[in-house]
Amino acid sequence: MFDKRNKAELKRVIFCFGEGGHTAQASRLYMAMKPYLVNIDIVTVGDFHERPTWSNQHLYYPPLRYKEDGYTVKAFINAIKNLKEMFVLISSASTLGVVSTGPGFCVVICAIARLFTKRAVHLETWSRFDTQSLTGKLNYWICNKFYVQNREQLRFYKSAIYCGLL
After folding, report:
1. What is the structure's pLDDT at 33?
2. DSSP codes of every residue in 63-105
3. Are 145 and 106 in contact (CB under 8 A)?
4. Mean pLDDT of all residues in the chain?
5. β-bridge pairing 70-71 and 65-66
6. Count of CB atoms within 10 A of residue 70's CB?
């Protein structure tokens, strides 16, 4: 069917997440939000190359830390190169906000969103019960809304919203 929507008028939501469990959470979150995302372009940003089927556009954001090597100079140089693209994307009037399910690079993207007075929402990982993720610790103070999937996390994040497992 021919789409009569004007691309310039479309609004955009950015989903920021990593590989593995973060991808599963983001996909389930998208499915739950889908009825509310009519006529909204979805841009995904992640540390993997393949565009999710539910995304209109995907941007590769290399990881800041490699599990085998830790933090590397090359990783930081790549991240700085990607910052310009993130600033342009997020500062656009059509961008409504960012939804994050982690990992660490999402902190920077949520901070940029807040810098441009966009909405930033973080969903703390479902695998956390007795500890906090570094991403969660930082995004708790950055994001407009902060959700936890396990009630045990409410003791760490006093103003978080319990949403249950996806």
Report:
1. 93
2. -SEETTTEE-HHHHHHHHHHHHHHHHHHHSTTEEEEEE---TH
3. no
4. 87
5. antiparallel
6. 9
